[in-house]
């Protein structure tokens, strides 16, 4: 293989220069999907774009399907060990707010921060996402039986304006923010609903 | 100025609102019963009650507890903490003692919420309180003993 062919192969396979590999995942605005003529197809593509946010560690860590949360960009088990508890708020004697306050708190004696927001809790187990396909997450999110009785409009409100959802883009030192912005995530949710809220396969 | 109550006394403190409560308790108010262990919410030594709920004071900036009621080990009162104290001394739970004010605060909070805790309840409530002397077995026994005293 000539050098040129090798260089072209590397380029086509998407090997990126170092500076680009370092940059965070981004999300595209709804207009980027205007070229998909079929509504259902465009809708599913919009949800797939939303999925970049939904499956980021900022969201998945507190949408577990098990008894407790994970933490960090590498989704390690929460330390100290904590359990979900009856109210998705930890165990009696050690509820989430034993450590998590109304705001992120920078550590005084080490690098990093303790995340916080008011309110702060796990998503209910019916809204667990870890290990689910995007299609499964999509049908779960639309299902009022599992999503806390939310209509699609309420879901839009939640994604576009809820404070704890918004924390995903302001997670404090030591955590990679969710991709894009909450505003863009809200716009994608709006466009997904307006195109029929279809789910990817 | 940040204002809150500590052990029933009002304090108006002209301090950086980002200063952790633990620093204020120990260095400003000289309430040294609450210990520093890690400073990063990993050990539980700094546990106090804020508005009746356990809270790690090392990660609690005082600006976040404006108007709150803080209770430290020095100010704890009530049937649960009395039962815990009696159970603790009866079987000599502490070894070096460093972690123990945090252990006692968490154990008391547990008994206030679950009067007859199971082993699992105890494990879940106490998982954030580390003891380098490994007094865990005695802590568990003493919590069961205290629960029995409270029942009787
Ligand atoms: S000193 Fe606060 S948890 Fe260790
Ligand atoms: S008694 Fe020594 S650390 Fe617990």
TrEMBL record, chain A:
Its lineage reads:
Bacteria, Pseudomonadati, Pseudomonadota, Alphaproteobacteria, Rhodobacterales
Cite the entry's keywords alphabetically.
Signal
Per the UniProt entry, the signal peptide is 1-20
Q: What is this protein called?
A: Isoquinoline 1-oxidoreductase subunit
Q: Please give the organism.
A: Paracoccus sediminis
UniProtKB/TrEMBL annotation, chain B:
User: Pfam families, from UniProt?
Assistant: Fer2, Fer2_2
Q: Which InterPro entries match?
A: 2Fe-2S-bd, 2Fe-2S-bd_dom_sf, 2Fe-2S_ferredoxin-like_sf, 2Fe-2S_ferredoxin-type, 2Fe2S_fd_BS, Beta-grasp_dom_sf, Diverse_Oxidoreductases
- Name all 2Fe-2S ferredoxin-type domain ranges: 1-76
- Alphabetically ordered keywords of this record: 2Fe-2S, Iron, Iron-sulfur, Metal-binding, Oxidoreductase
- Keyword Electron transport assigned: no
List, in alphabetical order, the Gene Ontology terms for molecular function in this entry.
Answer: 2 iron, 2 sulfur cluster binding; metal ion binding; oxidoreductase activity
Top-rank lineage group of the source organism: Bacteria
Entries under Gene3D superfamilies matching the protein: 3.10.20.30, [2Fe-2S]-binding domain
- This protein is called (2Fe-2S)-binding protein
